[in-house]
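In this section we walk through a basic example: taking a raw amino acid sequence and producing a predicted 3D structure, encoded as discrete structure tokens. The instruction is simple. Fold the sequence below.
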Amino acid sequence: MTEQDVRIRVLERKDAPVVARLLHELLNELAKGSGPPLATLQSTAEAVLGSDAIDGALAFVDSEPIGVIMLNECMAIYAGGAFGEITELYVSPTHRSKGIAPMLVGVATKIGHQRGWKRLEVGAPDQPAWSRTLDFYFREGFEEVGPRLRKSI
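The resulting token sequence is shown next.
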């Protein structure tokens, strides 16, 4: 497979079922098969893709969707105003290590330039279990600034 075999396009609201399916695969992989139900993700994807603060892109080989990147516009004083956060990035296992994720990050960077963002951020995965993921982001020019914590409310 070459770069010419991969087509990437910006997400549209109608892509919710495809995004939900790809993220279902991602979340099941992360949760060792116990991710949320596909129907729940599809409902959420429809709502999320309707927001002006959300962008993203899909990667295709032929007509098969094989990857997705989701971006959320955030605001913070430390970031100089608006910035983008990569909330999900997934490439199907059979298409990994073929340059698709860097292509998706490249599209995210272009979207960020168009939106006037000064930076992209992404949550740091648990280490050392996800060292390959961290290495990928380092290769793509990200710098480590610490882990992210969460509190459910």
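Looking at the output, two observations stand out. The chain has one domain: 3-139. The radius of gyration is 15 Å. In the next section we compare this with other chains.
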